[in-house]
Amino acid sequence: MGNNNTMENWVLKNKKADFELIMKECGVSPVVARCLVNKGLTTVEQIKSYLYPELNNQHNPFLLKDMKEACAILTQKIKQGKKIRIIGDYDVDGVVSTYILYRTLLRLGAFVSYDIPDRIMDGYGINVRMVKDAYNDQIDTILTCDNGIAAIEQIKLAKQYNMTVIVTDHHSLIKTESDEIILPPADAVINPQRPDCAYPFKGLCGAAVAYKLCIALLKQFDLEGNDEFIQELISYVAIATVCDVMDLVEENRIIVKHGIKLLQETKNIGLLALMDAAAVNKEHLNTFHLGYIIGPCLNASGRLDTAKMGLRLLLAQSKEEADRLAAEVVELNNTRKNMTSKNVEKAVALIETSDLRNDKVLVIYLDDCHESIAGIIAGRIRERYNRPTIVLTDSHNESHDFVKGSARSIEQYNMIDELQKYRHLFINLGGHPMAAGMSLLRENIEELRSLLNENTSLTDEDLIPKIVIDVHLPLAYVNEGLIQELKLLEPFGKGNDKPLFAEKNLKIKSAMIVGKNASGLRFRLMDQYGKEMDAVYFGDVNTFFNYVSSTFGAEEAMRLQTGRSTKATISITYFPSINEYNGFRNLQLLIQNYK
Can you tell me the distance from the alpha carbon of 156 to that of 66, in angstroms, rounded to the nearest whole number? Predict the structure, then answer.
């Protein structure tokens, strides 16, 4: 959640459109019409396809380059009873891709196995050890998912061993210095990022690309119950799409919107056990649960143990096995959460007590942090300071003595482009504008930090968080009808943010500290017309009272803390919701930012 920052820059979106027409043709209120236009949807047709994402609006999988070839190869290999090995990756997207391909190929009668790299020992994607293992296991065909597009040498080796190789991936392609594209020497390469691929939507995650292959294959075999099976696959792809932080637009919106409904009805024993173990309320399931509970639990096994545990959970056949594995991944995720918060505290202390405070690009070295959580920590620090952040830690691979790290960026800073400028400092480097992974020698850390900061084009203005408001919405407009109508805009996530509303000069009638660990505040607020409403804020409670104290005086802050009336007022950005407890329902505002 936003924290108060007098440095925040609040701006109101004010896009122009024919609102009367949109309200009439699409049957929406003025508030929702404005939210839709602010998303860049301007025609009635665009708005209707956004409001009602239909399953049959998905694109034909055969529009993907090499899809026909991949299906022909796999169909032949299945008929010949050849051994096929799926090679996935250790994050949620990789695990889900592996799972849906494995289930589909088993269904089609294939002789199929899978392998997933170990995050610490192997690193990302297919590697030479896995190719050699496949050769020793007399594998005929390797099928990659969520990786492989950059594995030029590894696939060359597989071809030397006379294996057939099919790559399915969604990551960026390798380019030479003269911008030529290098594809791995596989028999088929399916990736919507290929410039010669005519697929209309480029934003699929690895599991969605694998899912397209599954649909195309299932169409070649006319099996009983295929339609239900394809629907079931969508529910898993929805998890991967949210967890891989893909834009929830176009086809991804269709997948996630329907996937969430399907997950509420899921028969998957492993997922049911996981939702139980992590106390997920299936009735109210949304992208938050996928991205912050289910996903991280599946991910924790790949971070702290083996990603195969997450896969075994999805494949679990008995309730006993599912319950045992679910308990293990939830436990691992709790361990991961504790490790993360300890290291975030350490990083903050380091910044606050050193000259890192003045850097525009933060480069933080945490010696004994587990390397698998460096990216999460970088993300938290970036949120807190609104600056591009790199977190480095010692590599725990016995054969190396270097540091490994992860970077998370802000919109104004293309992380991978900036790091590429100092390629000579890195042993390994990969990523995209908002995130990157790297390894380098310990003695190069300081040089990296100073080069990034001396040569940055970031201005002080770039580092001021920009809070973009959809509608200035007085309290009188907030009602249950509006809250129901806003559900049409779900699922929310990257590329489809929750609308943000704002109201100014609200009188704070009372404030009460709530939540475990006193993590939030419940307010009673009143506007200038005497309209009152409940509001909650989850953020730093002390910072809030300090803000009141510095703005209205210590006396007012004290009165507020002891439940008395005050003269303090507040301007807020918020999202309206319904709070249900003990059979009561009341409207409440979820405060995002205040000043």
Answer: 19
In the numeric block, which tokens belong to residue 98? Answer: 């592996």
Strand pairing class (403-408; 83-87): unpaired
Q: How far apart are CA 104 and CA 259, in angstroms?
A: 18
Residue whose C-alpha is closest to residue 188's, from 218, 133, 131, 149:
149
pLDDT (tens digit per residue) in 508-556: 999 998 887 778 999 999 999 999 999 999 988 989 999 999 999 999 9
Which of 336, 342, 346, 331 is CA-nearest to residue 373?
A: 336
Residue 289 CB neighbour total at 10 angstroms:
20
- The span from the first CA to the last CA of the chain, in angstroms, equals 14
Angstrom distances, CA of residue 187 to CA of 11, 162, 165, 169, 430: 51, 11, 5, 14, 25
Neighbours of 83 (CB within 10 A): 16
pLDDT (mean) for 421-447: 89
pLDDT at 1: 39
- Omega cis (within 30) before 491: yes
How many angstroms separate the CA atoms of 443 and 448, rounded? 10
Q: Where are the beta strands (DSSP E) in 105-261?
A: 111-115, 141-145, 164-168, 174-175, 181-182, 188-190
Task: Please give the average per-residue pLDDT across 395-401, as a whole number.
Answer: 67
Long-range pairs of 349-352 with CB within 8 A, sequence gap ≥ 24? 351/381, 351/385
Rounded to 5 degrees, what are φ and ψ at 396? -100, 20
Number of residues written out for the chain: 595
pLDDT in tens, 275-313: 999 999 999 999 999 999 999 999 999 888 889 999 999
Contact between 469 and 13 under an 8 Å Cβ cutoff? The reply is yes
Residue at token pair 């009561």: 584
Identify the band that residue 71 occupies on the pLDDT scale cut at 50, 70 and 90.
very high
Side chain identity at 117, as an amino acid letter? P
Q: Which residues contact 367 (CB under 8 A, 6 or more apart)?
A: 393, 394
| C-alpha–C-alpha distance, residues 44 and 254, integer Å | 18
- How high is the mean pLDDT of the chain? 93
- Residue 80: name the closest of 136, 140, 134 by CA: 140
Residue reference for tokens 């339609």? 227
Q: Which residue blocks in 265-373 are alpha helix, DSSP H?
A: 269-277, 287-289, 295-304, 307-315, 319-352
Cα 55 to Cα 454: distance, rounded to the nearest angstrom? 50
Question: In this predicted structure, what is the pLDDT of residue 131?
Answer: 97
Residues forming a β-bridge with 508:
525
Rounded distance between C-alpha atoms, residue 364 and residue 372, angstroms: 15
pTM of the entire predicted model: 0.92
